[in-house]
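Hi W.,

Here's what went into the run:
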Amino acid sequence: MTVSSPLPSYHRWGSLVGKRILVRVDFNTPVAEVNGRQEVTDDFRIRACLPLFEELHERGATVVACTHFGRPHGVVDLRYSVEPVRRRLGELCPGVALLENLRFSPGEEANDPQFGASLIKGFDYYINEAFGSSHRAHASIMIPPTLVPSAAGPNLQREVSTLTSLLESPQRPFVAIVGGAKVAEKLGIVKVLAQKADTVIVGGGMAYTFASSQGRSIGSSLFNSSFVSECAAILSRGNVIIPSDARGLSDGSSFGAEGGDDPVVEFGANIPDGFEGLDIGPQSVRTFIEAIAPAATILWNGPMGVFEDRRFGAGTEAVARAVASSHAVSVVGGGDSVAALKAYGLEGSFSFVSTGGGASLEFVELGDLPGLKALRESQFN
Ligand code: AMP
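Here's what came out:
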C-alpha cells in the first residue's frame, strides 16, 4: 500500500438501508455567548458535511457524527460540551445525532484501542470526514478502520487530491507563501517547498530568524536561535525571498487584536535594539506582489504580520489581494490565513480553502497523514 494508493470510497458500499454509519467530523467550530447561551458563530464546517449526511440518509443509512471540541484534556468539562454544535447541526440537518466531545475521554488522545472499539460498537461502517484531525493518531481516527469497513469522506478526499496534485504536478511557475509566528513549526515545510516550488516567499514573525541568519539586526522581533544555520542553508538555494523591510513598534508597546495607540515605526533591512518587527514593510510588499504576479500555482499558509491588529494587517492584506487577483490555481490553508481572507472578504476568490491548518502543513511536509494511512491499510478494503 503506497501513499499514492487511492483512499477507500464509500460509493463502493452496496445498499445502506438499515445500516449504521459513524462519521468522524471536525466540528471544532468557534462559539460565543449570544443572549446568554453559547452559539456557533461560524457554521462553515457543519455546512460542509451536509451533502454527505444527506446522501447517506437518501441511501437509507442512520448517521451518527463524532468530533472533538476544544481541549478538555480527557475529563468531562461542560465548557467544552458539543451542545451548541449539536443544536446548530439539528437546525441544518435534523436526523444526524452527534456524540459528546471525544476528548472528554482520555482514551481519545491516547489512541486507546478499547476506547476506539467502544466508539464504533454497533456501527456497520466508518467514514473519516475530518481532514483537519487526520494528522493526529487519536482513537477515533485510527481504531475504527481496523474494526469495520471504512472510507474517506468527500471533503477529506478533496483536500487530499488538491494538495497531492499541487505537490506532484503543479502548473509552473509555482509560488509558495509561508508566514506566521513559529519558525520551529514551519521550517520543515519551507524546506520541502523550496525544492518543489519555483519561488518561496517567507513572511511573518518566522522571517526574522531568516533575516538574522543573513547578519541583519532584528531588535526584539521573534527569533529562534536553534534554526539560524538551517535558515541560512535554505536561503542559499536562491529561490527563497524574505522581507527587506518591516513595520513595528518600540518594546513595551501593546499590540494584538485589541490594538493600541503607540506610533508605528518603519524599518529598513535592520531593526534596531528596542524595537520589534510586526509586519512586512512597503518595499517587501512590492517585491512579494511582483513575485506572485506570474504564478500559475500558489500555496499560501500563514499571515505576513500581526494582522489581528489593524496597524499590522497591510502586508497580509496586500498578499491576499495579490493572490486573489492572480489567475493562478490558489490553495490557502491554516486557520489564521483563512480568518484573514474572511476579514478582507476574499474567501471566494481562492481556488481552494483548506480546512485543516496543521494537517495540510504536515501533508505537504511528509506526504501522508496517520489517519489517511489507517484508511488505506484497513483490512476491509
Ligand atoms: P502561525 O500559527 O504560526 O500561523 O502564526 C499565526 C500568528 O502569527 C498570528 O496570530 C500572527 O499575529 C502572528 N504573527 C505574524 N507575524 C508576526 C510577527 N512579526 N511578530 C509576532 N507575531 C506574528
